[in-house]
Amino acid sequence: MAVDITLLFRASVKTVKTRNKALGVAVGGGVDGSRDELFRRSPRPKGDFSSRAREVISHIGKLRDFLLEHRKDYINAYSHVMSEYGRMTDTERDQIDQDAQTFMRTCSEAIQQLRTQAHKEIYSQQVKEHRSAVLDFVEDYLKRVCKLYSEQRAIRVKRVVDKKRLSKLEPEPNTKARESTSSEKGSQHPSQESEEKPATEEYPEKVPAESQPELGTWGEGKGDDELSPEEIQMFEQENQRLIGEMNSLFDEVRQIEGRVVEISRLQEIFTEKVLQQEAEIDSIHQLVVGATENIKEGNEDIREAIKNNAGFRVWVLFFLVMCSFSLLFLDWYD
Amino acid sequence: AAAAASIRERQTVALKRMLNFNVPHVKNSTGEPVWKVLIYDRFGQDIISPLLSVKELRDMGITLHLLLHSDRDPIPDVPAVYFVMPTEENIDRMCQDLRNQLYESYYLNFISAISRSKLEDIANAALAASAVTQVAKVFDQYLNFITLEDDMFVLCNQNKELVSYRAINRPDITDTEMETVMDTIVDSLFCFFVTLGAVPIIRCSRGTAAEMVAVKLDKKLRENLRDARNSLFTGDTLGAGQFSFQRPLLVLVDRNIDLATPLHHTWTYQALVHDVLDFHLNRVNLEESSGVENSPAGARPKRKNKKSYDLTPVDKFWQKHKGSPFPEVAESVQQELESYRAQEDEVKRLKSIMGLEGEDEGAISMLSDNTAKLTSAVSSLPELLEKKRLIDLHTNVATAVLEHIKARKLDVYFEYEEKIMSKTTLDKSLLDIISDPDAGTPEDKMRLFLIYYISAQQAPSEADLEQYKKALTDAGCNLNPLQYIKQWKAFAKMASAPASYGNTTTKPMGLLSRVMNTGSQFVMEGVKNLVLKQQNLPVTRILDNLMEMKSNPETDDYRYFDPKMLRGNDSSVPRNKNPFQEAIVFVVGGGNYIEYQNLVDYIKGKQGKHILYGCSELFNATQFIKQLSQLGQ
């Protein structure tokens, strides 16, 4: 177990002080020591870098506190049931999302700025390493806080999807009623082309008004037409068919929504990995470009060498031929 | 069993606390980052490196880690954590740092206790530099030992020569030098027990260096316990250990009781790696010669790349197989490789399914399954990659070991030595093996002969000895170690009968059909698959006797020390008649992995008992032979 000897240290500082005083040694302090220290420390370069980094950290801390504070309200599914104190409307949630995102963006920009600044300033190797490590820590902190935010958001989105799914399951009679109106509308179409336009105009108006009484008036309004029992049956059959179709469509849409959420999660993972690989791929690209250039130069050199070789051979041949001719000439001359 | 639970964990926790400004470390996922700089000396480096990787240091917020005696630039606004030994030069350098105002605040941690006068030196320098308030905390860490495994520790790596076998057994050693060596050993052992949080009962043999260590350690523990105000063994340091009625047993043995084991050729994975390759502080350095041996004429010779691997507790394969015999290791690597390939294929298959999916519109129902599968595949990718890395690592290491085995015919030596040590009949004469030019380096032959000499009941006749000497010199060996062993044997004969190694048999399992399947990289043709029968080395036997309170002429006259007793007595009668649950074996003069493995195997059979193994230095046979030859000159 470690033993804290800080107090022992302070005691030895005191002993040394008193000893020095007794000996009359001039220490760089004494009574003025403490004051001197204060003076000494303030003009010391406070390190612009670290104070800025600390600022960024405090900002991120504020964001984190803010998110944590409102987290409970944010993910509360039964907010419309609870009292107003804990309620949070969707608009407020959107507002929080917006704010959080802008905040995160500014923070990451600030970190980038610090990084470029740290690189530009020429300091020793150790200080550079230290600064880049510090910035890595800050980025990591930001990532962790962003994870908080994205978790919250994912929960919210999932809740919304679930809610939509549930809300589509429940009002069966409502949907049926809606279907009957639309089916009625649909069946009216082929019979009455002229009424198509006003019908379609009325349709968008009528759909939001899902209330039964309106339906009743509507139905009554159309009741002037004779609905023979066969037509009623036909309409009912069509209703059933359309209901079946709609249901299956809704099922599929539900499934697709779920899968889309999963796919988006996967996409996130993939983008993360791809971004990680980006740097490596860049470097590989550089290397490959360098390699192709080297090979090109190599080819050039080889071509030159071949040319030189050939040229050299030509000269040697020429020289030999000249020598033999000169020999012949000399021989003939003599 | 909490007291002996992983000395490694305790030391790691202590280190992490120190790095966290001496406040217990709590993992907080949304905590603000704090950054600091770590400064250590070589001792500190050796202690930290087997326990914390660079990534773990980063996680603790350390941006830079530097050696104390290197050039360091001032980094303003950063707290610095120092982890050094309180030696003169270190203190001077620290005072210099204070004067140069390199960092914002200083957290000083001394590996072992610092003396009052040195503390005053620092105080002086701090005053002179007006930096007293900057020195935030000063701690004595009591961590002066290196933990290599969960249950194995070594005293030091840096100044090995000071406490080596040679240093202790030199004929020309003076008393003061001996005192210094003993003090160093006792200091480390004391730190070890402080970290463990328990006061042991000490037993040691008489008349050896171990006895001197035991006396000093007992005195030191006693002094510390008496000093009620500052005792390190009270309060919340003990924790659960306070309530255990069992105190651990510390068995101090001297290397001289068993000189054959360090020379022995071995067959288990970890011990082989230590013997054959460059392995220390859990890091093995391999020199890889890549590719084809015969390079085309005119080409530049292939560069040998040096690779180094860390064998850590995270490496599950290593943890499982470090004590298994080598052929088993080879098989397991193959198995791991196959299972990895199967997993890889599954992931690839998934990819092809997804590719198919894009074309086939109708199979939308398969989509949801596949997204789930894909998510799980993607999340399991890092695991797969890690597994691949480990498999590669072990393949390389095992291949390197195998090459050595084949080149030096280590299996032959192993078998023969086992036979010698168990006194079964030898089928080949020793002279044949020594004169055989292919089998092994001169050092191997020397080792074999020394083992023969040590474990022979009576010394071979002069004529035989001359014959052997001639054969050895022909093979190129240096005969100095033999000189020393002769002296030692004469001395040991006077003291007690030479230790016997128990009866063992090795069963060669013929030519291995299992390992020699096609596609296997470990074609171990001609290498016998030897099965290790359980045997107890002398150290294990001694431990067994002492732990189980068995009566045995070997251990009956071991001295008994109990630092907690009010008055030390010289008796050898243990007060406690119950068998011990935890034991710590410490070998003064050096130890090795063979003994460690033997102890681990021994304790595996016993439920609920723990053993820790420690030695003053860890050497392999090569280093030991060197020391012996220096002694024999």
Report on this structure:
- The complex is a heterodimer of chains A (334) and B (633).
- Chain A is mainly alpha-helical.
- Chain A has 9 helices and 1 strand, in the order E-H-H-H-H-H-H-H-H-H.
- Chain A has a domain at 47-167 and 246-279: Up-down Bundle (Methane Monooxygenase Hydroxylase, Chain G, domain 1), CATH 1.20.58.
- In chain A, helix 5 runs antiparallel to helix 9 (229-333).
- Chain A is flat.
- Chain B has 633 residues and is of the alpha/beta class.
- Chain B has 4 domains: 7-142, Rossmann fold; 147-257 and 537-632, Rossmann fold; 307-353 and 373-408, Syntaxin Binding Protein 1, Chain A, domain 2 (Alpha-Beta Complex), CATH 3.90.830; 410-495.
- Chain B is built from 21 helices and 17 strands.
- Chain B has helices at residues 7-19, 42-48, 54-59, 88-100, 116-128, 165-169, 175-196, 209-226, 260-263, 269-276, 316-321, 326-359, 365-408, 410-422, 430-435, 442-455, 462-475, 480-495, 538-547, 593-604, 621-632, and strands at 36-40, 62-67, 79-84, 105-110, 135-140, 146-149, 152-154, 201-204, 249-254, 278-280, 283-289, 304-310, 507-508, 530-531, 559-561, 582-588, 610-615.
- In chain B, helix 4 packs parallel to helix 5 (116-128), helix 10 (269-276) packs across helix 13 and helix 14 runs parallel beside helix 16 (442-455).
- The longest helix of chain B is centred in the middle third of the chain and has 44 residues, at 365-408.
- The interface between A and B is large, with 60 and 62 residues.
- Strand 1 of chain A pairs antiparallel with strand 5 (135-140) of chain B.
